[in-house]
Write a structure and sequence with these properties.
Blueprint: H1 28-48, H2 56-81, H3 93-117, H4 123-150
Length: 157
């Protein structure tokens, strides 16, 4: 005597559970990430499109650092936008972002200081370093706001 059991499941998706989390772009962390992406992109383009750098190694370092963190922050932004961090719970995402922002804040601050010291009055290079400082400020604000999530006080059990 054999039995056959057939199980069917149906899933319905409501309008609030779409693939993209567009509401994230209206939150403070989302707006900070958008501001960082825009300022890093402008900083990179200002230095990249300028010819006749007064100091070749300084601006190569600036380009590499701004482009690297532009790509990294774009990945973090898209990860939050597509809710990918919920699909990979084995990684502590707030702590990962905290460390990445702390390293990025320091390296972009150093690159902006070096770029502003070596710009020698070239307006595009000065603008690039200013946007580097703006990105550093936005990263510091994001670091400050994410500190309570990643390293804040834990509830006692």
């Amino acid at each position: 005597m054999s039995h056959t059991v057939i199980t069917t499941t149906t899933t319905t998706r409501t309008s609030g559970e779409s693939g993209l989390n567009l509401g994230y772009t209206q939150t403070i962390p989302g707006l900070l990430k958008i501001g960082q992406l825009i300022s890093l992109l402008i900083a990179f383009l200002c230095v990249f499109c300028t010819r006749g750098w007064p100091s070749w190694p300084a601006f190569q370092y600036f380009e590499v650092v701004t482009l690297w963190f532009l790509v990294a922050f774009l990945i973090f932004f898209l990860m939050h936008l597509c809710r990918l961090q919920t699909r990979m719970p084995c990684i502590n995402w707030p702590l990962t972002e905290f460390f990445h922002y702390s390293v990025g804040c320091i390296l972009i601050l150093i690159a902006s200081i070096i770029a502003s010291a070596n710009s020698r009055g070239v307006s595009a290079l000065v603008a690039g370093s200013v946007f580097g400082f703006i990105a550093t400020f936005l990263m510091a604000v994001n670091l400050w706001t994410s500190y309570s999530v990643a390293c804040g006080p834990q509830s006692a059990m």
